[in-house]
Amino acid sequence: MNHASTEPAPYTVVGGGAIGGTLAFALASAGHPVTLVDTDRAHVDAIRAGGLVVARGDARTSLPVTAVTPDEFTGSLDRVLLAVKAQATPAAVDWIEPRLAADGYVVSLQNGFNEARIAEGVGARRTVAAFVNIFADVVEPGVVLDGGAGALVIGEPGGAPVSARVRDLVADLHSWGPAVASDNVEGYLWAKAGFGAMLSATALADAPMADLIDRHRPTMAAVAGEVFAVADRLGITLEPFDAFDPHPFRQDADPAARDAAFDHLTAWLRTQSKDRSGIWRDLAVRHRPVEVATQYVDVFAHATERGLSTTVLRTVMNGLEELQGAPHLMAEARLDRLDRLARTESPAHLADSTQAEAIRDWLDQHREDMVADLAAYTSQGSASDDQEALAACLAWLRGWLDERLGTPQAEEIFPREGAGDILVRRYPARDAGAAPTGPPVLLLGHYDTVWPTGTLESWPFHRDGDHISGPGVFDMKAGLVQAVWALRALDALGLPRPASTLMLNGDEETGSIASREAIVAEARDSRLAMVFEAAADGAIKTARKGVGLFTVTITGIEAHAGLDPTAGASAVDELAHQILHLSGLRAPDAGTTLNIGVVEGGTRGNVTAGRAVAHLDIRVASAAEQQRIDRAFAALRPVDPRTRVEITGGWNRPVFERTEQVAELAGLARRCAALLGHDLSEVSVGGASDGNFVVAAGTPVLDGIGAVGSGAHARSERTSVEGMRERAALAATVLTSLAVG
């Protein structure tokens, strides 16, 4: 398509907004025949009536450009500049494909990563890659505001060498400005994705981009760093453009270099006439959906696949979604909250494969020692309702911990009336690579079991090949053995570990009523918590339901049912009405269950019941559902006004929701499992744990990292020897990754 010595090449611009309008004007000004295709009838009509107008300051310049809607277009397409919003790409390509000449092509002059989607429609041979960073806006139908200088790079997809058609196109686009050809357009696109993440964040508030980027550097560095971590994992070579150099915004960049890059970037942005992003304008002026969610689909997909955190960027996207249709909710306080989130995000540097293999091999050599420890621990009865047995078990644990891990840096024992005491042991960070300061990692477990004292006499510890059975081996004695041997492996191999707090309570199986406050206090002083409760078919647990235990008591009026049947007010009848009403609160689709497990009432068959009681177990998957149940209880009224309805009890454990930080920890665990040669899944469960308290306190949790097996609270309870080795290795690999994060 070399047309250097022929008539100016004709172009069709599909999407005549900020980018398309700017380039259409530039090509038309150089004498190229330009047809602009746009779905906005008002925009098309204005261009037909007064030409395509570009405004620069107070000056406006108009050029005649052919403008049509897609329905009005006739003929074929040759050189297509595609400049529609990312979410409109599939529909635009469907329109282009039947009209595109065999030797024609489509150039993706869009935000995001759209080349693959275009190639699916028109073929890779007819797709051209491009990076565009043009500061412009459509300010009224037919009028494009030129926001200042930008960047434009054209190249073949997939990093192929620059072709003749690319060189010809770049030569024509010099009518706009400094367009260049490159065999690394992808490097520019990923660099812009990081810069675009910053601009997306600025749309959360109504203030100039430069000022918001300058004032909220933690957020801006975090969102760009999350994007560039994905690019690095994909092997992308990032390219600087305009005043933006991506390299100082990598997660491991020098802080001084990053600050200098911020200074340079914000100074340049203040020279631009366009001081707010197109995303802000879509929300605040045009009141239309923003395209950024589509732009970052690929980023999130690659991050998820590779277990990389995008916590801050996802929070930005969630915030923009909330602002759609509600621009009055824009507030700089949103960025203040993101700054706090960004400061707490300290991405762990994953242990390398050599370290993971060393951990796995060392624990494999000591698997029989782990089994012996579990046998000894299981022989210690620890029924939740036997304080003497709990005290003896805790004394044994202290001696065993001394033997396996040495003397702790500090030990605290919190006596509890009517329950097992709480043991807290603090271990310092180890190895020069581990950060010596900062909050510790909380290793949380319980030593009580549901099995009554004396169970061991009829059901002792037993091993059959890989399977181990016995009271409490799955819930959760094997989990504690694994945690201890994980720490022991790191010490033996000289690998780093973070400061760690081991906390064991003795009343988890009865609701942790006596230990809840201590757990919450410790959680708030911790970086994160690893809860060594048993796995769910090998999966970690990233969401648990909140649990409410309630009693409905009805007080009626007793009377002789035969001699004076109308004198009484039956509590049983009233309870029946209330049970039917309460049953309607179930919401399976929302994860809410309500079980009426025990009902009792009345005294004799010939006496109108004066009292009736129902005991309820309610489980909810969200705080919103918990609030709905609370409101319903507050609104309960008796059907028979002569009776009285009373609700007692409460929420035993809060909801454990899958927060972004919980998801990040799950991602880290999956990456560590992959290093060890196995897959790790996650699951939401109906049962609760002490992890519920920790998440509600604002501390992220990795739960269900304990035993692999089945049969909790049943005589079929068992765990796996290989599972013990595997999960101890996983815990150790996670810990050493956290130590250098």
UniProtKB/TrEMBL annotation:
Keywords of the record: Hydrolase, Metal-binding, NADP, Oxidoreductase, Zinc
Domain annotation Peptidase M20 dimerisation: ranges: 542-635
GO molecular function annotation: 2-dehydropantoate 2-reductase activity; hydrolase activity; metal ion binding
Keyword Hydrolase included in the entry's annotation: yes
Alphabetized PROSITE patterns for the sequence: ARGE_DAPE_CPG2_1
Protein's UniProt keywords contain Flavoprotein: no
Family: Belongs to the ketopantoate reductase family.
Record's protein name: 2-dehydropantoate 2-reductase
Organism: Streptomyces tsukubensis
